[in-house]
From TrEMBL, chain A:
This is Zf-HC2 domain-containing protein. Residues 4-38 form the Putative zinc-finger domain. The lineage of its organism: Bacteria, Pseudomonadati, Pseudomonadota, Gammaproteobacteria, Cellvibrionales. Pfam families: zf-HC2. It comes from the Bacteria.
Automatic annotation (TrEMBL), chain B:
Pfam families: Sigma70_r2, Sigma70_r4_2. It comes from Zhongshania aquimaris. Residues 25-91 form the RNA polymerase sigma-70 region domain. The keyword Transcription applies. This is Sigma-70 family RNA polymerase sigma factor. Keywords: Sigma factor, Transcription, Transcription regulation. NCBIfam families: sigma70-ECF (TIGR02937).
Length: 80, 204
């Protein structure tokens, strides 16, 4: 039977629905009886969502960056 | 979450050769393409490779057929550029497949039988919306995202932000799917650690 440590290794794959068949049942069964691992999974999932929402804002350029990159591709501009 | 690249109106304008639309695309995607390039070819060539990728995207955008999302299509182009640069420079990928299978939580989280001794504690700030309203926590997460190793940054970006399939990501980054999963889990654990620490201490 799956223990907590093993579950935490599988938690990301569980979030991404990578498990099928017996493995999936084992994971469901463990989560049913273990509130710590339910919380762990919930925290991991929310961390992922929060990180993604912030990354979406963080990993963006601005107009100046876009103008610069663009000037180097469009032959009618100053670029190569 | 509606991404600019899924915007049908934007795609229509791009295909018509609207340069302002193209600049909008650059502004939304340049840092993301750079992350992917860096993960494949390393820091030195990443800027150059990404610039080349934008030229290719610009030339090819009229022929974009929408069989994949615009995001997947652009990442594929930057990934191809990066891989061919890698071959030209006869360099090895900055991150090959990794050996270790288990991303470690704190070793003292579990006892010998694999049960929790330090179980996860309750989080007062509970939803992504609330977490992002908390300035200090926001800062902590930003910092963590910024200092993630390049491979984790790229995999997290492609999976949790751009929502590509694990199979697609493995192909884009020349990794096995198993490795993509391990790297992704590490990135998520790192974010969770940061948030958890803040929930417990109010600090990064
Ligand atoms: Zn458990």
């Amino acid at each position: 039977m799956l223990n907590c440590r093993q579950f935490t290794d599988l938690a990301s794959d569980d979030i991404d629905l990578q498990h099928t068949g017996w493995k999936r049942l084992e994971i469901r069964a463990h989560l049913m009886i273990c509130r710590h691992c339910r919380r762990f999974r919930r925290h991991l999932d929310r961390s992922r969502q929060t990180g993604a929402a912030l990354a979406q804002q963080l990993w963006r350029g601005d107009d100046a960056m876009a103008d610069m990159i663009f000037s180097r591709i469009n032959p009618s501009n100053s670029g190569k | 979450m509606s991404l600019p690249a899924d915007d049908q109106e934007l795609i229509r304008r791009l295909k018509m050769g609207d340069n302002n639309a193209f600049k909008q695309l650059i502004s939304s995607y340049h840092p993301k393409l750079l992350i992917v390039a860096r993960a494949i070819v390393g820091d030195v060539f990443a800027e150059d490779v990404t610039q080349e990728a934008w030229s290719s995207i610009y030339k090819a955008i009229a022929k974009f057929e929408g069989r994949s999302s615009l995001s997947t299509w652009m990442i594929q182009i930057v990934s191809n550029e990066a891989k061919s640069r890698l071959r030209r420079e006869k360099r090895h990928s900055s991150f090959g497949d990794i050996d270790e299978v288990r991303p470690e939580l704190d070793a003292n989280s579990f006892n010998g039988g694999g049960h929790w001794v330090n179980p996860p504690s309750h989080w007062d700030i509970n939803t992504p919306e609330l977490m992002l309203q908390e300035d200090q926590l926001r800062h902590c997460i930003e910092h963590t995202l910024t200092i993630l190793p390049e491979n984790q940054k790229a995999v997290f970006l492609l999976r949790d932000v751009e929502q590509h399939s694990l199979e697609t990501i493995a192909e884009q980054l020349s990794l096995s799917e198993a490795n993509v999963r391990v790297i992704l889990h590490r990135a998520r654990l790192q974010l969770m650690k940061t948030i958890n620490h803040y929930q417990e201490t109010g600090e990064c």
